[in-house]
Amino acid sequence: MNINFNKNEDYNKLLVSELTKRFAKIKLGGGKKRIENQHAKGKMTARERIDYLLDSKSTHIEIGGFAGSDMYQEHGGCPSGGVIVKIGFVKGRQCVIVANDATVKAGAWFPITGKKNLRAQEIAIENNLPIIYLVDSAGVYLPMQDQIFPDKEHFGRIFRNNAIMSSMGITQIACIMGSCVAGGAYLPVMSDESIIINKTGSIFLAGSYLVKAAVGESIDNETLGGATTHCEISGVTDYKAENDKEGLDTIKSILSKIGDYEKAGFNKITAAAPKRNQNDIYGLLPKSRSEQYDMHEILKCLVDNSEYDEYKAGYGKTIITAYARIEGWAVGIVANQRKLVKTTKSKSKSSEMQFGGVIYNDSADKATRFIANCNQKKIPLVFLQYVTGFMVGSKSEHSGIIKDGAKMVNAVSNSVVPKFTIIIGNSYGAGNYAMCGKAYDPRFIAAWPSAKLAVMSGDSAAKVLLQIEKASLEKKGEQITIEKETELFHKIKDKYDEQTSPYYAAARLWTDAIIDPLETRTWINLGIEAANHAPIKKDFNLGVIQV
């Protein structure tokens, strides 16, 4: 019996259990009472609508489930950002589905709602995927209108994206299943086809109250912008349905008739499960961040047949580069090695020990070349992050670590094959960038519950911030005792650690999701399946690099 393995296993399973518990609460949206109110109106909830739309027994993933988590508390919160986004199959066709959650502030748009909608559209654009909008929203949340209305990445960008996607030939279908007001009214009209639900769906630039105030006209909302009005008088909408299910069935029917798509042509064979038990991940991943482990063993739990071809295995050992398959798809894996490694001695160079999770000159050089190779061969890239950062100190600086790090960042930035990032543990500083963090356009980016995202570790940051705080207090004439210093340190560290949590990152959409490690293969599989809808049209060009 391996006691340490069992301790790790217990710890990581508790993290997954906490993840499940938190998400179960989020899935209730605005709460059971508001769900009941939705049903009383003859309406399905956002999640029920999506579940009805998706093919039964088909695989799907949810984007941004933790968006808005623990944010906007002074406004009553905004679970899942007030909108549900899933990627799955409808009539065998992979789609992005976006559904306003009317149980959360009547589906009103918070800043995070806009960001999440834009992320859904980004996924559709990058991967040439049809997108379905299930509209049920009261419009912009007025108390926060200044944070959602006028900027480039705000509400209006959504309609710009509608137009761009239309010009690209990306199918957009909207179903108006509740309110659709003001600027939001443009979304279904700018879609290819729109459906409206009789009696419960409505669409207008201004509701009856505003019309009365603005022009003095007295009119009810149904006559102003209901299903009959827009299907028989204005011609704004294309189909009228009597209830939610009929509207969703109409979407299914439309999608079932769409022609086939041009494929990118990524290599795929019959999938095979890993030979190593995937559940071993829980025992392999240490509880302590200072503890070492061999990332090769994690790879064996993730790749088909637990087989991979390691590229430059003896060189730049703090990064593992390997060709493998995941669910049958050929992938290039770039993963941080988490154990202490030793370089090979030569006549001109002595051997040295290198810390796991740190990017050194040789590992950055190797990763750059491997990324270039994958682009040459049209192989999607998978980044497995557990990175502390780049090596610092005079030896590294004199060896040109900035130059070698820049080469790797350049390769990641200019890569044209689809990239997928899984944050396993630490994701610190420039290491996050080089290992394809959110700023480097991974098609999907997900984190395990063990992940931490920050400029540096909590201990290091707290020590720096403590010195600044001490200097400030001493300048004011305060005497800092050892007890006071300890208290300050823990206060600073606790606040910093809270901000490094995977939940903090997911709430702000720095990651697409927090996932059980056992879901990793599913995410990569669906990600490459989506990416295969978009042929690569841009040439790979590294630009200017320092060699």
Strand content: 15-25%
**Number of DSSP-assigned strands:** 19
Helix content: 25-40%
CATH C-level of the largest domain: Alpha Beta
- Using the coordinates shown, work out and report the CATH topology of the largest domain: 2-enoyl-CoA Hydratase, Chain A, domain 1
How much is the radius of gyration in Å?
A: 26 Å
Which overall shape is indicated by the principal axes computed on the Cα atoms? globular
Q: Describe the largest sheet.
A: 8 strands, mixed
Q: Which spans of ≥5 residues are poorly predicted at pLDDT below 50?
A: none
Q: How many structural domains can be distinguished in the coordinates?
A: 3
Query: What does the average pLDDT come to?
Result: 92
CATH architecture of the largest domain: Alpha-Beta Complex
Number of separate helices: 20
Q: How far from one another are the termini?
A: 49 Å
User: Structural class given helices, strands, pairing?
Assistant: alpha/beta
CATH homology superfamily of the largest domain: 2-enoyl-CoA Hydratase, Chain A, domain 1
Protein described:
The chain is α/β, with parallel strands linked by helices and 547 residues long. The chain folds into three domains: 1-23 and 264-451 and 511-547, 2-enoyl-CoA Hydratase, Chain A, domain 1 (Alpha-Beta Complex), CATH 3.90.226.10; 31-255, 2-enoyl-CoA Hydratase, Chain A, domain 1 (Alpha-Beta Complex), CATH 3.90.226; 457-500, no CATH class. It has 20 helices and 19 strands. The protein has helices at 3-26, 32-40, 46-53, 111-127, 157-168, 186-189, 208-215, 221-225, 227-233, 244-255, 280-284, 295-302, 361-377, 394-398, 401-414, 429-434, 458-475, 482-500, 502-507, 520-531; strands at 61-63, 83-90, 93-100, 131-137, 172-180, 193-197, 239-241, 308-311, 319-326, 329-336, 341-342, 353-354, 358-359, 381-387, 389-390, 419-428, 444-447, 452-454, 513-514. The strands form four sheets. Strands 8, 9, 10, 14, 16, 17, 18 and 19 form an eight-stranded mixed sheet that branches. A seven-stranded mixed sheet has the order 1-2-3-4-5-6-7, with helices on both faces. It has a two-stranded antiparallel ribbon with strand order 11-12. α6 links the parallel β5 (172-180) and β6. α4 (111-127) runs parallel beside α5 (157-168), α13 packs parallel to α15 (401-414) and α17 crosses α18 (482-500). The mean pLDDT is 92.
